[in-house]
Amino acid sequence: MTKKGIIFDFNGTLFWDSQKHYDAWLKMSEKLRGTAFSDYEMLHYMYGRTNAAIIEYAIGRKPSEEEVESIAKEKELLYIEMCKKDFENTKLAPGAEEFLNYLCDKEIPHTIATMSAKMNVDFFIDVFNLEKWFDINKIVYDNGKIKGKPAPDIYLKAAEMLGLNPSECIVFEDAVSGIESAKSAGAGEIIAVASKESEEFYKKTGLVKKIIKDFYDPELFRI
Questions:
Q1: Is the pTM higher than 0.90?
Q2: Which residue in 29, 50, 97, 193 has a CA-CA distance of 20 to 30 Å to 43?
């Protein structure tokens, strides 16, 4: 691996919290439309999408900005409460700290590209002490203006934040929509993090260079 920069998705990649987002959106979707999202809907309409896009799908129409703000805040507060109640498991993915230390020691540019809203990003920065490894001003998140995955925008912006071309970057992702986003952005390499899905699931996409089960993978420390 000889790329110049690293871009991480966060949820399900550096922080294995997919089940908490899943559970929070189950509750919110049931409240919004009377029935909870199915597994298929979660996979195709929730993972990697903006809150606005998820809410629009749930209610079947374009929501107002006020509706998005109110519903998204309720969902994120529910999610954060789940994290706080399960604080023992609110930690970075196995091997992530060691790999981030390695990137910092080698002065390899890296950042985060997440569809989480600022409320969650602020929570992550605080609870995981992300300032230890990241320039928080270069973290790209759902600011209400950027297009959600699978659009390439978030990875194009993240590469720009690093001062690199997307082709010079390795992207770590767990969601199909995120993998498609990175591919559309022209990422040099895409590594799937099998935090929830099987390795076979990612192989079938035909889009990833490598699949890892955690960040202890020795090949990562030869970047």
A1: no
A2: 97
Whether the CB-CB separation of 170 and 5 falls below 8 Å is answered with yes
Q: Cβ-count burial of 50 within 10 angstroms (0-12 exposed, 13-18 middle, 19+ buried)?
A: buried
Give the span between the Cα atoms of 117 and 139, in whole angstroms. 11
Summarised one tens digit per residue, pLDDT across range 119-170 is 999 999 999 999 999 999 999 999 988 998 999 999 999 999 999 999 999 9
The top-level CATH class assigned to 18-88 is mainly alpha
Q: Which two tokens stand for residue 133?
A: 């490894």
97: nearest Cα among 134, 126, 61: 134
Amino acid (1-letter code) at residue 172: F
Beta-strand pair 210-212/189-193: parallel
Rounded to 10 deg, the angle between the 18-33 and 51-59 helix axes is: 40
Q: How far apart are CA 159 and CA 166, in angstroms?
A: 5
Tokens found for residue 145: 């203006």
Euclidean distance between CA atoms 212 and 77, whole angstroms: 31
- Residue 11: φ, ψ to 5°: -70, 125
Q: Quick one: DSSP state of residue 62? A: P
How many Cβ atoms are within 10 Å of 124's Cβ, its own excluded? 26
CATH 1.10.150.240-classified regions of the chain? 18-88
Amino acid at 181: S
